[in-house]
Amino acid sequence: MTRLTKTAFLAAAFSGVAGLLPAHVASQQAAVDKALSAAPSRARDATMVIQWNADHTYDVLKDGDGPLVCYDRSDEARRAAFDVQCTSKGNLDRVAQSRRFRAESADREAENAMVQAAEADGTRISPVYGSIWWSLRGEDQASARVHMTVAVPFATAESTGFPNNGREGGLWIMAEGTSTAHLMVPGR
Q1: Is the N end or the C end of the chain the one with fewer CB atoms within 10 Å?
Q2: pTM, whole model, 2 decimals?
Q3: Which positions ≥6 away from 37 have C-beta within 8 Å?
Q4: Taking a C-beta distance cutoff of 8 angstroms, is the pair 71, 84 a contact?
Q5: pLDDT tens string 4-38
Q6: What's the rounded Cα separation, in Å, for the pair 74 and 86?
Q7: What count of other Cβ atoms lies within 10 Å of the Cβ of residue 20?
Q8: Given this model, what pLDDT does residue 159 score?
């Protein structure tokens, strides 16, 4: 091959890759922006964004040196068309376990049975105590609503002083006494 032919070949090869690259980069940036829409605005620059794989592992789309991680959940069964969530990086093992339970269950009842069995046999992974879970979900981003909870695994109304129902309009504890116990934050 002559030098000119090699140069033309390499130029053609790189122009083909370069033609694909911008679309991939734009798609990845759109996925990052979507996931970050659930994060507190002041934390977005330092927040890690991941994309879950079918085997419940993940790929990092955006590194972040802060404590938070965000991801899209709309690919899961029984989720809203637009469903993104952010939480502490320390909760990723629990999220992976929850994703597995959801993927392996035919319906909500079967999923709940798997969670309860894991609670009973001690294999349910606990979230980080005090970690916040921000979710943004709806039919689309424009109509999505924020849902926020604070993980308090194994806490009870008695141990925290929070009521176990939302009738008073403030924070309340749900699923008390389990690894899933969390403070419900009233929506706006």
Answers
A1: C
A2: 0.83
A3: 84, 136, 141, 144
A4: yes
A5: 444 444 444 444 544 555 777 778 999 999 999 99
A6: 13
A7: 9
A8: 96
